Amino acid sequence: MRQMAYFEAKLEALREIISADESVHFISDIGTGFLGLSEHRVRFGEIARDFPDRVIAPPISELAFCGLAIGAAMSGLRPVVDLITASFAFEAWPQIINEAANARYMSGGQTQAPVVFHLLHGLRGAGAAQHSQSPQAMLWNCPGLEIVLPASPRDVKGLLKTAVASNNPTVFIDHVLLFECMGDVSENDAAIPFGQAEIKRKGADVTVVATSYMVQRSLAVAEQLAKEGIDVEVVDPRTIVPLDFATIMASVEKTGRVVVVDECHMSCGVAAEIVARIAESGFDKLKAPMRRVATLDVPVPYSPPLEDFISPTEARIAQAIRATMN
Amino acid sequence: MLLIRHFEEALVALHEQGHFSGHYHVYIGQEATGVPALADLAPDDALFATHRNHGHLLARGADPGRLFAEILGRRDGYNKGKGGTFHIAAAGLGFYHTTGIVGGNIPLATGAAYAAKTRGTGALSVCLFGDGAMEEGAAPEAFNIASLWKLPVLFLCENNGKYGANKAVGAAQSSTMAAYPLTELPGLYKIPAVQIDGTDVGAVFNAVSEATGRIRRGEGPQFIEAQSVRWPGSEGNWPVLPVATNVNLAWDASPVPESKRDWYRSSDPVLIFIRELVAAGVATREQIAEVEKSVKAEISQAVQFALASPFPEPAEALRDVFA
Ligand SMILES: Cc1ncc(C[n+]2csc(CCOP(=O)(O)OP(=O)(O)O)c2C)c(N)n1
Ligand SMILES: [Mg+2]
């Protein structure tokens, strides 16, 4: 196994994907491609240089270039679109929600749109209200879109490959704060199928279901709580559409205690949906009320102490876990 | 203009010292557009700025201390620390809402113009945006409506990427438009549109006065493309100062590193204006140096004010969601 930084694994996946399939095109800013404002962003330029005919930088026209990607996908290409900050995807909502999500169903299964939309979501530090959004729950409310939330170097690589190979429109939702995290990535790592949760940490007392960067944060909390004698199991769904509910329920049956951690706003968020499903199918397995740890229901404030106050911090996660133990 | 320049340079220093961490943009290189453009507006005119708003707010008379405080996320900031650099709002000055979404303010400014017209206030609305915003669909959609309904709105497009319309060809360029010059697009919607040198104070003042005059006479929307050359300090994603400005650079640019000297020599609007004032006998070099001294003192006081301002109470995060 190789130890690799998350951003390296992501770049490696992008290179392998565009090398392997002539129908793949990256629609992306060259200077920042897929890495947002991270200091590593220029590295995408190496890929752009090697595939000049299949990496194209669009104008600031999200509605048009997302729609273009969907149309191209209907016509035989596999475009991967970088929207950079997830909030910019709202400019393209009509094409993603109205067209991509509905295309296959509305055509009675005739038309498929194998497009990937890449977004960087969440609280990145002083992003304020318009650069910190987590639209995964809104997207989950639009049947027809696959939704991927990687949280480790191996996952970002394996899931990106599956996203591009998928014949469905897929929203690949990444987080800049994951980029430096290290992990094992084997050479020629196989694609990771959608709908397979991974137990990121085994534990007996409490099930923490976490997504994206919240997986890493929950793992850190689990280590702290181990010292208090609380044995936390961290389940990472990795994709929420499709959702591996069986793995989540197996863990819940074992522990009987549930905390769901996600960066969407609290109301109607990803945590809300997962908690609702557990309540419907496993209420009798629960030893304590379930808890959600999510972003408080206000637009994201700029000032660091305010942002901290509304975010799913380690302290709030730990508090929620302890609460389920009492 | 000097106040804006020294404000922004002090801000770069505050960022380097770690007083704030997020992404931000400065107005250096565009001072000769914002200052004369906003000089002649009425108190009840509405303004809609962008991610590059600091200069616009200062040009309209905003308090530099409260601006610094906002960008540092402090309690005394214009938005109580909730908005930050991209979103500085000062409703008392007509800045109701400042968006970080490229093109997002074009429909909003058009809406403020609709309100002014239908309420008969006589006010107009100024939409300040970059060349990049012309790429968003919001721009032509709003142009069409503004023109159809003859709304009192000035579309002031600050094209800070003079020299070519294609970023693949030239240096740092923030837009790639098939329709160029940028006046073509509003022209198609029958909006009178002119292209001017945005580093020429007089040209900007005259063009804006003429446009606002027409708007106030009920002639409907007007469009101005004010061109400037991108400041070499914003070539990357984060501002970097090639040199600390002082008015003597107007006559001797040798303190600027050679690779960036050209801009300070021929495209820096602040230095251009200083040379103009001296050549016209309006002010002496010594008088301008005195002005700079007092501006620098004002800026350093403003920085002290912001640094002394406490961070907001955490629970402040829960207020202001609803009226
Ligand atoms: C809808 C949207 N897409 C992308 C961005 C990212 N972005 C921020 S500034 C910028 C460039 C804007 O260029 P321009 O309008 O010319 O303004 P300038 O920065 O040159 O003043 C981009 C693409 C954004 N803020 N909003
Ligand atoms: Mg620009």
Describe the structure concisely for a colleague.
The complex is a heterodimer of chains A (326) and B (323). Chain A has 326 residues and is an alpha/beta fold.
Question: What does it look like?
Answer:
The complex is a heterodimer of chains A (326) and B (323). Chain A has 326 residues and is of the alpha/beta class. Chain A folds into 2 domains: 184 residues, Thiamin diphosphate (ThDP)-binding fold, Pyr/PP domains (Rossmann fold); 128 residues, Rossmann fold (3-Layer(aba) Sandwich). Chain A is built from 11 helices and 14 strands. The model of chain A has no long low-confidence stretch (mean pLDDT 97). Chain B has a single domain, classed as Rossmann fold. In chain B, 40% of the residues lie in helices and 8% in strands. Chain B has 11 helices and 5 strands; from the N terminus they run ααβαααβαβαβαβααα. Chain B has a 5-stranded parallel sheet with strand order 1-2-3-5-4, with helices on both faces. In chain B, α2 runs parallel beside α8, α4 packs across α11 and α5 runs parallel beside α6. About 3% of the residues of chain B have low confidence. At the A-B interface, α3 and α10 of A face loops of B. The complex binds thiamine diphosphate and magnesium ion. Thiamine diphosphate (TPP) sits at the interface of chains B and A.
Q: Which structural class best describes the helix and strand composition of chain A? A: alpha/beta
Q: Count the helices of chain B. How many? A: 11
Span between termini of chain B: 37 Å
The second-level CATH architecture of the largest domain in chain A is 3-Layer(aba) Sandwich
Q: Over all CA atoms, what is the radius of gyration of chain B? A: 19 Å
Shape of chain A: globular
Which percent bin holds the helix content of chain A? 25-40%
State the assembly state of the protein chains: heterodimer
Assess the beta-strand content of chain B as a share of residues: 5-15%
- Report the CATH C-level class of chain B: Alpha Beta
Biggest sheet strand line-up of chain B: 1-2-3-5-4
What is the average of the pLDDT values of chain A?
97
Q: Widest sheet of chain A: strand order?
A: 3-2-4-5-7-6-12
